[in-house]
Amino acid sequence: RGVNENGTTQRKWREQFLRRLKQVGLLQEQRVVSQVKKRIHFILLSAPWHLLCYYAEEISLRAPLQVVNIPLTNWSESFLSKLSLPSPLSQNVPNPPLEYYTCQFRNNKLERFLGSDNKETFFKTTQRHILYEILARTPYGCVNRGEVGIDRLISEEVFTAAYPLHEMPDNPVSLQSLGLRQILHGYWSKWSCWRRYQPLDHIREYFGEKIALYFAWIGFYTAWLLPASLVGTLIFLLGFVLVSSDVPRFQCFRLCLSVSFVSLQAGLLFDNGGTVFLSIFMSLWAVTFLEYWKRTCSYLSHRWDCTDLEDIEERPRPEFSAMAPMTMRNPVTGAEEPYFPENKRLNRTATGCMVIVIMVNLLIFRVFHQNASVSLTAGAISASVLNLIIILTLSRIYTSLAGILTRWEMHRTQTKYEDMFILKVFIFQFVNFYSTPVYIAFFKGRFVGYPGMYNTLFGIRNEACGAGGCLIDLAQELLVIMVGKQIINNIEEFISPKVKAWWQRNKMRTPQMAGTQTMMDVSPWEADYELLVCEGLFGEYLEMVLQFGFITIFVAACPLAPLFALMNNWVEIRLDAQKYVKEFRRPVVERAQDIGIWFHILQFISHMAVISNAFLIAFTSSFVPRLYYRYTRDSTLRGFVNFTLATAPQSYMQQHHNISCRYRGMRDEKGEYLPEFYELLVIRLSFVIIFEHVVFFIHRLIDLIVPDIPEDVELKMKREHYMAKQALAENKVQHLSFELYFL
């Protein structure tokens, strides 16, 4: 439509929407801020008491019945307290939020809820965000065309933003008078708080359960990285001792390719008995970590009143409502809603899957072609850095492609849209980031051939592993990709919000205002409008999930990976905290029971880690060949290197001045495999099967022994259920009497 027509329609929708909000009962105040070229109209909305009570019952909000004097503690703090020792990580955060026994709010039982006599404080600030529920439900045009809700209006550019206000800073007289935002700034987002427990109850009280669960998860994950990084560092240091006492390292032969014996010794740092123990440890660590996170999540979910969070019928997405070609009656609500035919969605989803398969194949082709060519023409480190740059570039491209595909598939609800988008991005990023390490770990050096009969791929000879084996190449690639990605992401997270915020402020203010106006002169709604829009948790979860894959799937090649992850997470938590407290607009509170689809992705990675570590030990490391040689040839490993090398064929030596040379492989002088090769192959496959069966058995045993819900939480749930029955007993008796009378 034309510009004038579009502007008229937008004005009509805006006026209709505001008129409907007034009819619902919302109170409105309008403020105008004049700038050089435009005026910004701020509409301040507030809900009266009766409206809050109505919607609190409508969405099954839980209200307090009785205070529970159980502080939020960590397992380490509880353990140290039993030993009468102070915890160096704890801090006395002012105004800790109280925990309550709660039940679903009932307006006709208002007097039975704790604090109901004070209308100003009964509903917390995060609970007052139910006002957004009203904005999301209110129509502004034809309901059949999906012209409903503030989200659709923002997407149509009728409004530029809708957000709850941050608490404005003041000058507190005492610690008890500090606001929640001030507490979070002083006791959470500062760099000096890196070694302290996070004030999770305060985070939940200010930002809601979904954001609090993310910070609870990353804090829990970081704490579990402590033992993993300690074991990994000890194994790495142990490698130096094992290198100095390793018998095979003193056995030297003339190889058919020029090699550095320094790399041979460096390879022993990563390929020794200690890394085998670390692989087993980290495989068990991964599955145990997830089991205990389930317990922690259930504890927090109940503490924050999200255990029995009801599945409320979700509204259609604004983009879905705008693009749906037809309407259909909703079988749950009975209302006419925008509808997209299911068979068309299935066809689009199938097409999207084909695109994913094609892109994954292109990624795999890139990895094989690049590793077959780049490493032969450039230094190993340079090739790894170049590979990282390509990976990060493709990462942005594939994320945009996943967004286009998911929007095209026309998913009705935001939850379904987010799950499908996350799944697509994870598949792309899994292949993008892990394909090079997988190639080095399981394919590099496997199909080389032998002197005089080398195999080729795309016309280029296949790569062989160095003298130190493929684990040293894998360790180098992992360090460059993982640590390089972490450094780049942290620099971007530190600089990017500050640059964007500076640009946002300068766009909104005139040069004179920028030089003279202070934060005290700016109204709260104007100050918050200058902040950045909250980007959600997708990027934060994705970064941590990919890191979890690096430290579990390939830990055998890089024992220091958990240590680098630990140091990164200490920085990551502070950067995220600063963004949410100081640089983002306050997000609308979202309730959640858990971390959603990310938990299932973590489970998939933990299972992949078990299988990957089994194959790494069996086929990539020299652990199984050494064990085989020790028990069948010589327990001192003398002659082991000779056992793993074959002599080049006579035809090859004649071409090279009759000089005899050796190459990695168990072949005879004709290039045929020896019987020992097949014996080792059987042993390796047997090791893989035994390894993964043992780890999965222990995982299942832990799953059975450790209940998902702690015993004290179950007891508290029963107590809460009993109190809720007592509070609503009279109501139930009245219903029963009515039913008996009717009969």
From TrEMBL:
Top-rank taxon, per record: Eukaryota
Domain Anoctamin dimerisation: from-to ranges: 5-200
Record keyword Glycoprotein present: yes
GO function terms (MF aspect): chloride channel activity; protein dimerization activity
PANTHER family linked: ANOCTAMIN, ANOCTAMIN-7
InterPro entries: Anoct_dimer, Anoctamin, Anoctamin_TM
Protein name as it appears in the record: Anoctamin
GO biological process, one term: calcium activated phospholipid scrambling
Any one Pfam family match given in the protein's UniProt record, by short name: Anoct_dimer
Anoctamin transmembrane domain sequence ranges: 203-720
Keyword annotations from UniProtKB, A to Z: Cell membrane, Glycoprotein, Membrane, Transmembrane, Transmembrane helix
Family, as annotated: Belongs to the anoctamin family.
Membrane topology of the entry: Multi-pass membrane protein
Transmembrane segments: 214-240, 252-270, 276-293, 349-368, 374-399, 420-442, 545-566, 595-619
